[in-house]
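>> received
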Amino acid sequence: MINMNELTALCDKLGCKITPECPLKEYITFRFGGPCRALISINSAVSAAELLKYLKANDIKYGILGRGSNVLAADEGFDGVILLLGSDFANITVEDNIIKCQAGALLASACVHAQQLGLTGMEHLFGIPGTVGGALYMNAGAYGSEMKDVVVSAQYIDEDCSIRSISAEDMDLSYRHSFFSGKKCVITSVTLKLEKGDPDEIRAAMSECMQKRSSKQPLDHPSAGSTFKRPEGSYASLLIDQCGLKGMSCGGAQVSEKHSGFVINTGDATCSDVLELCGKIKNIVKEKTGYLLELEPEILS
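>> returned
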């Protein structure tokens, strides 16, 4: 049972905004999802640690959100508290070729900072939707680049609510995986190391990257990005194409006609629609090709 008066008082003490019964569809890029009991905007690592201690001590269910770009939120909502690592926790500082980002900073903003200062190494990460913290959590990547190529360290809150530091060597970074995957840890800041480069060349590379995205991906519809992880030995979009599933739909969810690796919201999709469609895709692909596809977005439950 959540004591909202007590939780609100703690948020006021910490300077964190709290929104009771907040619709998650406003914070999920897929644009669906029912309300959570309360959404709290984190403003510091210390605030996050204090709130986590309170939630755990009172056995209150909680979840973590950044930009919500790789997340599915249930239609019935989330019966607990969501800690939002967003615009109140998005500071970016630069010293020489080192960029330190609070976890709520947009990855695109970090890329723009780098370009303006003539720092190269993040060009192909430009355009990936999401926060820097979320990008590290899943070792996000595109066009041959991944977060593991530029990250050197991070600060996080461990499962005992203590603030810790970790080096890149200890992060177990691999395809869409990190040390943090599946753990109840909260990334609070990420430190990146880049190289000196020419700002104009970096800008051109970023522009080319966005042109590729715009031409190949259904950016005009809400989605969670790539719907399935890349199976070893093939590509999810190739397998879905081979099975003739482009355009297949369930309710308002549809396999994109533009890029079959994306399931999109055509306007009124629900989480149930998306999960039903993804289940059908997985079954057909497994039956016809032998490959078992794995969902990439995490389900907030």
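>> The chain has three domains: 4-87, 90-216, 236-300.
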